[in-house]
Amino acid sequence: MNSSARPGDVPARPTSRDVAERAGVSQATVSLVLRERWQGRVSPARAETVRAAARELGYRPNLAARSLRLGRTRTALVVVPALSSEFFAVMYAGAARVAADHGFGVVLYPSPEGIGPAPDPFAHSGATLDGVLASSMAAPALRSLSEGGLPLVMLDSEPRDPGAAATVNPDIGDGMRQLARHVLGLGHRRIAHIAAEVDSWTFRERARELTREVARVPDASLVRTERAPLTVRGGLAAAERALTALPRPTVLVCDDDVLAAGACKAARRLGLRVPTEVSVAGFGDTDLATAVEPELTTVRLPAAAMGEEGMHALLTVLRGEPAPGTVLPVALVPRGSTGPPAAEG
Amino acid sequence: MNSSARPGDVPARPTSRDVAERAGVSQATVSLVLRERWQGRVSPARAETVRAAARELGYRPNLAARSLRLGRTRTALVVVPALSSEFFAVMYAGAARVAADHGFGVVLYPSPEGIGPAPDPFAHSGATLDGVLASSMAAPALRSLSEGGLPLVMLDSEPRDPGAAATVNPDIGDGMRQLARHVLGLGHRRIAHIAAEVDSWTFRERARELTREVARVPDASLVRTERAPLTVRGGLAAAERALTALPRPTVLVCDDDVLAAGACKAARRLGLRVPTEVSVAGFGDTDLATAVEPELTTVRLPAAAMGEEGMHALLTVLRGEPAPGTVLPVALVPRGSTGPPAAEG
DNA sequence: CGAGCGACGTTATACGTAACACTTCTCTCT
DNA sequence: AGAGAGAAGTGTTACGTATAACGTCGCTCG
């Protein structure tokens, strides 16, 4: 099949030249036919011959060669900080769907959680990429990407992020504002923040907004902030620390549903009932929020819409058009995990 | 920088030839130096000059060209059926860790859940791959891969899967056997199976083994099997169907913790207490199993070990050595969601 | 009747990298 | 002094694809 194929070798992958030889045409013709560029340049009969030859040989184009030749790949990279929260899985799915609709492929890169700056996704990836859609990552980790001149769209990052060609954000400040007012309105005054230890704009913004809202109520205070890795276990440990310290908070505001689930568990372990003795709230409104008992009060983040809008923005940038910064609305979803604080004993 | 750079153009990415020109050496020397193959072939001084030039230009090798030249990419594809179960995220992490230890990169491909055969990951992916590590997928979906002559290691698939160069499985039959004996031993006789609607060996095996074990106990029977997508919501709906049909099962054996969490919720909705009125058990022992109340009785699957062993097997195959089929042990973890059935009323 | 045109293909080349085969120069050993 | 070995590089080629530029027919039309 290949002139270089020695006996005993694994059969080398057929190339377009092999197909050409079998079909009795030139390699150029094979390329034209298989790329559907043959209208008016190759007779229908010949085109069919070529397709048959390709089928018989099991020909698959060498994507490395194609990428080299074309200088692009119609493939985007999606970077997420972790997969332990379903939120990112949904976001990815949204991005992948839009990409597929436009003939683009997507490669997913979960940056190892909490291990500081991510390793360079290019270091060992055979993927050549047209653009990057990145979520909630520390800027340093992405420096190497934007330096490579690769179009970058940031999700959940600061609205006017330099180095990003566009940004797509949920209105996270508004979300935290709604949540804070909800718990303050219920009468809570000693508030603890179970914060994600991921260093990104979205989490800094939540902390800032919570602090601000609490400060607006005279006798309320943020009695404690605990940082936790974005897992149930992490939320559990952090909430245990918060609930055993004095003064004990009456509500745990968590940066993610995963942390909130852990916090509920911590409360149970300490013999505290939710929400009568301690309230818990999270962010995301993923499946997990309604899987636990009581169901979580949470801020619904438009995960799928973020992925979709982000990919749209990236595709726009790749077409050379400017992409606007987008801010998506969020909504507070009050459920059973928050209630009025117990009367002081 | 590039001779083809026209004024007004975006600056073209520098090539190794640009670096060579700037350093005053040949392109071959640049390649030798940057790939660390210069010992005894290029003087240390010159090597440093080359590195400096590369740094100044912000040179990054064109991976498409490198792949084309080398015929390999040191990159593997990991295929998982869904990201809605944390199980696969952990498995991926294990595989990625081992790959990184061996200088390999990993690309993750989440095959859209439940949408039948997966779209061809190659169709639009710029990635050129050395091998594939695939989990729990329907065989047809992977046909196009193995046909491409790509080394394929299957996780959670039938032990002697043709077309797979190696397989790594948890001893899933043993796991279901232990779980079945556990609930039968507790006295349950009317058993329902909440099955994942993913069509793969591991789930077929669970169904088979459950059926077999139930058949060994004279008055026990598998009163119902409900199929569900691998989400909390899916488990909820399926469990509601199972619990409202007659005869009502006293235990719900679920194919995954995600389904079990949904099942617990269904029981609550129907006013049934877990485990006193209905028992629930799952598979996986992910974070979710202990996040819900009561904590789930489950079969601990070695997710991380599967990813690690699978990647080891793949790397072995890529070295041209034969890889043995591996079976990993599993363990029953009895917790609060299972108990003796209520006395017949 | 010959110029011109459309249909049908082919030839040649470039993409950026890695590595084989080769040259040149310097130094050592006998 | 001459052979030989090693150091320090360079010229060239190939990887497989896509496409611009170029033939070569047979036919129509002025």
UniProtKB/TrEMBL annotation, chains A, B:
Pfam families: LacI, Peripla_BP_3
PROSITE patterns: HTH_LACI_2 (PS50932)
Region of interest (Disordered), residue spans: 1-21
UniProt keyword annotation of Transcription present: yes
One Gene Ontology molecular-function label: DNA-binding transcription factor activity
InterPro entries: HTH_LacI, LacI/GalR-like_sensor, Lambda_DNA-bd_dom_sf, Peripla_BP_I
Domain HTH lacI-type intervals: 14-70
Alphabetical keyword list: DNA-binding, Transcription, Transcription regulation
Domain of life (superkingdom): Bacteria
Protein name listed in UniProt: LacI family transcriptional regulator
Organism whose genome encodes this protein: Streptomyces harbinensis
